[in-house]
Amino acid sequence: MSVQIVHVPLGDRAYDVVIGRGLLADAPRYLAPHLKRNRVAILTESRVAGLHLDAVQRAFGDISSAALALDPGEGTKNWAGLMQSVEWLLDEKVERRDLVMALGGGVIGDLAGFAAAVLRRGVRFVQVPTSLLAQVDSSVGGKTGINTRHGKNLVGAFHQPSLVLADIDLLDTLPARDFLAGFGEVVKYGLLGDAAFFDWLEANGPALAAGDHALRQYAVHRSVQMKAEIVVRDETEQGDRALLNLGHTFCHALEAATGYSDRLLHGEGVAIGCALAFELSARMGLCPQETPSRVRAHLRAMGMATDLADIPGDLPGAEALIALMGQDKKVQDGRLRFILARDIGRAFVCDDVPSDILRAVLEDALVARA
Ligand code: GLY
N or C: the chain end with fewer CB closer than 10 Å? Predict the structure, then answer.
């Protein structure tokens, strides 16, 4: 399959998402139009650096580069990680016209993007997402930021990248658990807005997970197309962009309850959250009663986290989980905001979920894990 490009038409912040195999080897060709001088500052993390940094820097040819490899994991996406990144960029004398490259998964993309947003009041940056989650979601759309002790992504900026290079070959080195967690975000796109894509995922998901590159590229391309369409309609999340948060209100509470640890990866929380959002929709009489089972059957068939029972260790009760949802960015005037669905591919924003039904969905899900 040849290289595909999804253009994100955001006026003077427009950019391309390039999707295909072997893109890194060709990086200078893609970077050239964005280089005002021949140097790139690379922010990455040590695990990704061990796998890909040499190859990237070798491919650069006469583009000079410096790299900072941060500690891997969500724990780096905080004030300390931001300070380390920004001070390093200043040590490297990165100027406003220079280019920063985020080489890594969602943590590095969000952190490097935010560092680029605040450095000298904004320098341009390129996303080179190395995880499936980052390729289909976090590298596109310009959300950047860090976590604080109050919760995830509570400090940040909208700062669009100048280019996204989604090299499908990089997914080959992902641990299976990380790949499947990223697949949670892929399924999310089918569930929120494209029933035919969900059908396609049911048919092709297992072969895709087993390593078929053409199927992987199709899934990344379709996901990015959907993300780009939504971002262009609503760049700063005043309306439709909230649909991308299908499953996330539940997910954020579960991540907080598990201490943002590897007991639950973000994409796993999204998958479980999507299943719960469909359960809630069905209990509210909004979507057909059999739809939640179909959603869960696909997640199960993929070997993905599907239910609260798939989260190891203790979880707090329903009331405590609901309290954790109160810290969600989607809360408006103190009201929880959910993305619910009328069926597969038909998500919508809902501000008035009856608390007794929400509590019952969580209590039943917690009982099922006992
Ligand atoms: N990941 C959700 C968004 O970009 O809006």
Answer: C
> Ligand 1 pocket, 100 CB below 6 A?
no
All domains of the chain, ordered by start, with CATH?
A: 4-172 (3.40.50.1970), 176-367 (1.20.1090.10)
pTM score of the predicted model: 0.95
- Pick from 143, 165, 99: nearest CA to 241: 143
Q: Is 143 in the pocket of ligand 1 (CB under 6 A)?
A: yes
> Does the Cβ of 194 fall within 6 Å of ligand 1?
no
pLDDT tens per residue across all 370 residues of the chain: 799 999 999 999 999 999 999 999 999 999 999 999 999 999 999 999 999 999 999 999 999 999 999 999 888 999 999 999 999 999 999 999 999 999 999 999 999 999 999 999 999 999 999 999 999 999 999 999 999 988 788 899 999 999 999 999 999 999 999 999 999 999 999 999 999 999 999 999 999 999 999 999 999 999 999 999 999 999 999 999 999 999 999 999 999 899 888 899 999 999 999 999 999 999 999 999 999 999 999 999 999 999 999 999 999 999 999 999 876 666 666 678 899 999 999 999 999 999 999 999 999 999 987 6
Does residue 137's CB lie within 6 angstroms of at least one atom of ligand 1? Answer: yes
Q: What are phi and psi of 145, to 5 degrees?
A: 160, -175
Nearest CA to ligand 1 atom 2: 244
Q: What is the CA radius of gyration of the chain?
A: 20
Q: Contacts from 115-121 at CB under 8 Å and sequence distance 24+?
A: 115/43, 115/82, 115/85, 115/86, 115/89, 116/144, 116/159, 117/144, 117/156, 117/157, 117/159, 118/82, 118/86, 118/157, 119/86, 119/89, 119/90, 119/94, 120/94, 120/95, 120/96, 121/96
